[in-house]
Write a structure and sequence with these properties.
It contains 14 helices and 2 strands, in the order αββααααααααααααα. A two-stranded antiparallel sheet has the order 1-2. Helix 8 packs antiparallel against helix 10. The radius of gyration is 22 Å and the shape is globular. The chain starts with a helix and ends in a 9-residue tail after the last helix. This is Cytochrome P450. Belongs to the cytochrome P450 family. GO terms for molecular function: heme binding; iron ion binding; monooxygenase activity; oxidoreductase activity, acting on paired donors, with incorporation or reduction of molecular oxygen.
């Protein structure tokens, strides 16, 4: 088609205009030279309804507001100190997962790696983000979050024909109400237990303190706070699971690489896994980066 219509083509699908590029030079123009013009994600009916009209970081258009949210996430929520504070959670949950694998092998059962990884990452992220929120609240949040992932995936006519009337919008609005209600319960529970002695700050606590202090340089609304929580949870569970699953798959298909990775990991960690030594796993990092190149968990990575 590029020989007939050129390397830059426009195709209208429904009410949406799409631009296709098909040359080696064009991606550089889009992703580097004019990257700011193309930096915003296209909003869909699902992202608009479920993520508070783009008030989160993932789906907010490129702007000062987006830059401030990104700064909040990198400087407050995902700092090295903050991540290390959740180290004990990760160690415990990974230990439980390994024990489960050992029990399955001993009894001759097949290990469903995908389900195991999903449960592992979901438990770790929910504990880091929600802390000691009541179990029923956490389980309900995980349930509706999984429904959100299912609703955002796949092809929808309503994304191409914005004026179309069908049941999908009603389904999204109902799901959004459920998500919003659960988040309200979790946030109110954290506010009620702010002064508890036996309490370590989780991501909800950090966001509430930042909202109250008003030191961010912009107004952190409750909608934005909820949107960021959804970003952290969905980005940390579904995508992490996919990356680990594909990495394991690629390693198993390449025995030489698997042996080299095993030797590296066993040589560095021996009988005790210490996150401080993760930076020494240079070859494993290369393997993971190659996996990301071959199997990106999203068409365009989260900014």
């Amino acid at each position: 088609m590029s020989k007939k219509y050129g390397v830059v083509m426009e195709l209208q699908l429904g009410e949406i205009h799409n631009v296709f590029i098909s040359s080696a030079e064009a991606p550089e123009q889009v992703m580097k030279t004019h990257n700011i013009i193309f930096s915003s994600r296209s909003a869909t009916l699902g992202t608009d309804i479920l993520f508070y009209g783009g008030r989160d970081m993932f789906f907010s258009p490129y702007s000062d507001y987006w830059r401030q949210l990104r700064k909040l996430c990198t400087m407050e929520l995902l700092t090295v100190k903050r991540v290390l504070s959740f180290r004990s959670i990760g160690a415990k949950e990974v230990s439980n997962a390994v024990a489960q694998i050992s029990r399955s092998i001993a009894s001759g059962k097949v290990v469903d790696l995908k389900q195991l990884l999903l449960v592992l990452t979901t438990t770790m992220i929910s504990r880091a983000a929600l802390g000691k929120a009541p179990k029923l609240m956490t389980e309900k949040f995980v349930e509706v979050a999984e429904e959100m992932v299912g609703s955002l995936g796949g092809f929808r006519l309503s994304d191409l024909f914005l004026a179309i009337i069908n049941g999908f919008r009603s389904k999204l609005l109902k799901l959004h109400e459920e998500v919003d209600l659960v988040l309200d319960e979790i946030i109110n529970d954290h506010i009620a237990n702010t002064f508890s002695d036996d309490k370590t700050d989780d991501l909800v606590d950090v966001l509430l303190k930042l909202k109250k202090s008003n030191d961010l340089g912009f107004s952190l609304t409750m909608e934005a706070l909820k949107g960021v929580l959804l970003d952290m949870f969905l980005g940390g569970t579904d995508m992490t699971t996919l990356v680990i699953e594909w990495t394991m798959s690629e390693i198993m298909k390449n025995p030489c690489i698997m042996q080299r990775v095993q030797k590296l990991v066993r040589g560095i960690f021996r009988d005790n896994v210490d996150e401080v030594k993760l930076q020494e796993l240079e070859y494993l990092n290369v393997v993971i980066k190659e996996t990301l190149r071959l199997h990106p968990p999203a068409p365009i990575f989260i900014p």
